[in-house]
Design brief:
Chain B: It is found in: Cell membrane. The complex is a heterodimer. Helices cover about 40% and strands about 15% of the residues of chain A. Chain A has helices at about 5-10, 30-35, 60-65, 80-95, 105-110, 135, 160-165, 175-180, 185-200, 210-215, 235-250, 265-270, 285-290, 325-335, 340-350, 360-365, 375-385, 395-415, 420-435, and strands at about 10-15, 45-50, 70-80, 100-105, 150-160, 205, 275-280, 300, 310-315, 350. In chain A, strands 1, 2, 3, 4, 5, 6, 7, 8, 9 and 10 form a ten-stranded mixed beta sheet that branches. In chain A, β2, α3 (about 60-65) and β3 (about 70-80) form a beta-alpha-beta unit. In chain A, α10 packs antiparallel against α11 and α18 (about 395-415) packs antiparallel against α19 (about 420-435). Chain A is globular. Chain B is mainly alpha-helical. Chain B has two domains: about 1-45, no CATH class; about 65-305, MetI-like (MetI-like fold). Chain B has helices spanning about 5-45, 65-70, 70-105, 110-120, 125-135, 140-150, 160-190, 195-200, 205-215, 220-235, 240, 260-265, 275-305; strands at about 50, 55-60. In chain B, α2 (about 65-70) crosses α13 (about 275-305), α4 (about 110-120) packs antiparallel against α7 (about 160-190) and α9 (about 205-215) crosses α13. The radius of gyration of chain B is 25 Å and the shape is flat. The chains are: A alpha/beta, B mainly alpha. At the A-B interface, α4, α12, α18 and α19 of A face α5, α7 and α11 of B.
Chain lengths: ~425, ~300
């Protein structure tokens, strides 16, 4: 009840304080260290690494500490990316308290790109070409400073319920489903109309705002011009068109199950057959498996409306306020190397952003038993290659996307407004931001 | 004569004069650091352009206050705060008095019941919110499931502002009623038994003794509880923030309170500490105003109920 500093409290410290493995069986770690250029490579340092959700780094930390006995890694982990963002902003403002390595999400990367001075320049000619072009372009400032190393990406495919498809007389095989849905968003919505007509109450997709995410991530300049100035929402025809499409699909055509992602109702809906398809970036597979435990029939099709799409993905940064820049940079570079990212992928399914990793047999051979043994590695690697557009997300992206998401939730989830009225409220909220 | 004080006499005089101030100084020093300084500093921030990360900007006078007062969300937040405050504080204080009265009677296993009412207070607010989020879920919640069995239509707990306020007030009441009941209980036990005996001899029944003896004698405690729950109620944050997973008070800000609004201004889309500080100060003034009104009302109510021939 009393105003609590929730974000701080929630950053649970999962201190993995494993003092370097017993000194007896030291297998000459010096061999791996000869190349390091820092002043005193054997100086004892403790590096804190702050991540959120699941980065799959736990075992990698131990491996690194075993190879570098002088380094102790302390892991901090926030439960959600929003918490991590609040924590990041607060401590950047305070000028102290951040970890030596801070993970950041692509959606709030751009607000931080306004303050490159707060981060250490990580540019390193040796690492050129390690990441997909659009992934590294997003963290490079105009004068060539690199503030982050890419970790994972979220190439999107379509996940669907084969059992519900069968009941509605739809094809169930993932190749056939991919053929059926091949095309643009209109195709996806039209197939949905056909499905809803035969499904007996099962909706086509879970949430209007989640679908909006998928569509908006294919727009080159969704809310802001490339120089960072906001496009007034009232003049943003492209977003308005997307909004209208989804609003029609969700309300008039009844394609939406009317759920807000991550809400209690959404989580429960996986158990009660409320919807048949959803957009799924790589990291969503684990979420679906967790929520839909015991439900059989989930599958994944190698297709995405309008080509490719990326949803989410993160970077590792080294904040300027930390004390161990050199060591932190070295660890960040090591963690984001293709070999390590493949291990993280195997541990937690975070899909690598490194070019080399996308060709790795360990990735391509990955199948997922829950999704009917689908070759998820292969499918997502192909979806990653289909991504053409990296949307420009400027300093106000987060705020502006929220306005439209709110508008969609008003009509899709809460049902308090119609499409036109809800849009008007979004315009009003835009004016309240006072950006122009 | 007193020019010729000895050294020890002078010391003891200084002791008498200065010591009391020294003894009470820890509170004031602490209050200055954690109470007064933030208050004044917030006022300083509120007259500046102050960005969360960018830091202090130009002095802008009252612009932040004017900007905020022109945002419809401010008034929405004000409405929500008062609605949740009234829905929680009023039933809470009334229920607490009744529960305390019941606990004050001759019960078996007294300590068990007394500990029992305090139990919800021990539960962390975030845990309470998580549990109630399941109970009040729109499509899959317990309350709506029961309503459906009873044949009434389900309520949009996260859609309708009033329903959302009721749900949040329920969480607050769950947590704080027992706590307030114990405070009332302590006060009730301090009421001299002779007064009750005299009232009973005069022929007063249970109701009459409750309204004509217990309630008036509780007056100072009622004032205390009303004021603390006013301050708490107007600063409510955890429960509405945890009411859905986004934590912004609903797509239409149906249950965004003033403290959540402060948070949204400072850390959310606008990242304006200046505006956040302005709203903090407005909230401070509102709390003082409501506190004074409360004080006046409770004083007149509890003194008049002793004067009136018990209804």
């Amino acid at each position: 009840m009393r105003a609590a500093i929730r974000n701080l409290a929630a950053v649970a410290c999962v201190g993995a304080l494993l003092t370097a493995c017993s000194s007896g069986n030291g297998t000459t770690p010096d061999a791996t260290q000869n190349g390091s250029a820092s002043a005193d490579p054997n100086e004892k340092v403790t590096l804190t690494v702050a991540t959120f959700n699941e980065f799959g780094y736990e075992e990698l930390f131990e491996e690194y500490m075993a190879d570098n006995p002088n380094v102790t890694i302390e892991a901090r982990k926030a439960a959600t990316s929003n918490e991590a963002r609040d924590n990041m902003n607060t401590r950047l403002a305070a000028g102290s308290g951040l970890a030596d390595i801070e993970a950041i999400e692509i959606d709030w990367l751009t607000e931080l790109m306004q303050y490159p001075d707060k981060f250490v320049d990580l540019a390193d000619p040796e690492l050129d070409g390690r990441w997909l072009d659009w992934k590294s372009a997003a963290v490079t400032t105009e004068d060539g400073k690199v503030i982050g190393y890419g970790t994972d990406i979220g190439p999107e495919a379509i996940c669907y319920r084969a059992d519900l498809f069968e009941k509605a007389g739809f094809p169930t095989d993932r190749e056939e489903v991919a053929d059926l849905l091949e095309g643009d968003w209109d195709t996806y919505f039209n197939v949905g109309k056909d499905f809803v007509a035969k499904s007996g109450g099962v909706a086509w997709f879970d949430s209007a705002s989640a679908t909006f995410q998928g569509m908006v991530n294919q727009v080159e300049n969704p809310f802001e011009n490339s120089d960072g100035t906001p496009i007034p929402l009232s003049e943003n025809d492209e977003i308005k068109a997307i909004y209208d499409d989804i609003a029609t699909a969700a309300t008039d055509d009844n394609l939406s199950a009317g759920l807000a992602q991550w809400s209690e109702d959404w989580t429960n809906a996986f158990q009660t057959d409320k919807f048949a398809t959803m957009l799924c970036p790589g990291w969503m597979l684990g979420v679906i498996e967790g929520n839909a435990q015991g439900v059989e029939g989930w599958d994944i099709a190698n297709v995405f409306p309008g080509g490719g799409g990326n949803w989410g993905g993160s970077y590792l940064t080294v904040p300027e306020q930390g004390a161990n820049h050199e060591q932190a940079k070295k660890l960040a570079a090591w963690l984001t190397a293709p070999e390590q990212q493949i291990k993280a992928f195997q541990a937690k399914g975070t899909f690598p952003s490194q070019v080399e990793a996308l060709e790795d047999p360990a990735l391509l051979d990955q199948t997922n038993a829950f999704f009917n043994d689908a070759p998820t590695g292969q499918i997502l690697a192909e979806r990653a290659k289909a991504i053409e557009v990296a949307p420009f997300k400027g300093p106000n992206y987060f705020a502006l996307a929220q306005l439209v998401t709110d508008a969609l939730n008003r009509l899709d989830v809460e049902g308090t407004d119609d499409a036109a009225g809800s849009w008007d409220k979004a315009l009003e909220a835009y004016n309240a931001l006072g950006l122009s | 004569m007193n020019q010729q004080l000895t050294r020890s006499q002078r010391l003891s005089r200084l002791d008498v004069k200065a010591s009391p101030y020294l003894y009470i100084s820890p509170f004031f020093i602490l209050f200055f650091i954690v109470g007064l300084f933030p208050l004044v500093y917030t006022a300083w921030v509120s007259v500046h352009d102050w960005h969360l990360i960018g830091g202090q900007g130009e002095m802008v006078g009252l612009t932040n206050y004017i900007d905020v007062l022109q945002q419809p969300n401010f008034f929405k937040a004000l409405r929500n705060t008062f609605s949740i405050f009234l829905l929680s504080s009023v039933p809470q204080v009334l229920a607490a008095i009744v529960i305390a009265y019941l606990l004050d009677t001759n019960l078996r296993a007294k300590t068990f019941w007394r500990m029992g009412v305090l139990l919800p207070y021990v539960v962390a607010p975030v845990a309470v919110s998580l549990i109630f989020a399941k109970i009040f879920a729109d499509q899959s919640g317990l309350v709506n499931a029961v309503l459906e069995i009873l044949g009434t239509s389900p309520i949009g707990w996260h859609a309708d502002p009033f329903a959302a306020h009721v749900a949040i007030a329920t969480m607050v009441n769950f947590r704080w009623t027992g706590y307030n009941a114990l405070i009332f209980l302590a006060a009730m036990q301090a009421i001299p038994r002779e007064i009750y005996e005299a009232a009973i001899i005069d022929g007063a029944n249970r109701w009459r003794t409750f309204f004509s003896v217990t309630v008036p004698m509780l007056r100072p405690t009622i004032i205390f509880v009303v004021i603390t729950s006013t301050i708490g109620g107007l600063q409510i944050f955890d429960e509405p923030r945890m009411f859905d997973t986004l934590g912004q008070g609903g797509a239409d800000r149906q249950w965004m309170t003033l403290t959540m609004y402060i948070y949204e201004l400072g850390w959310g889309a606008q990242k304006s500490f200046g505006r956040a500080a302005a709203v903090s100060w407005l909230l401070f003034l509102i709390i003082i105003a409501v506190g004074v009104i409360n004080f006046l009302i409770t004083r007149s109510i509890s003194s008049s109920s002793s004067g009136k021939a018990g209804r």
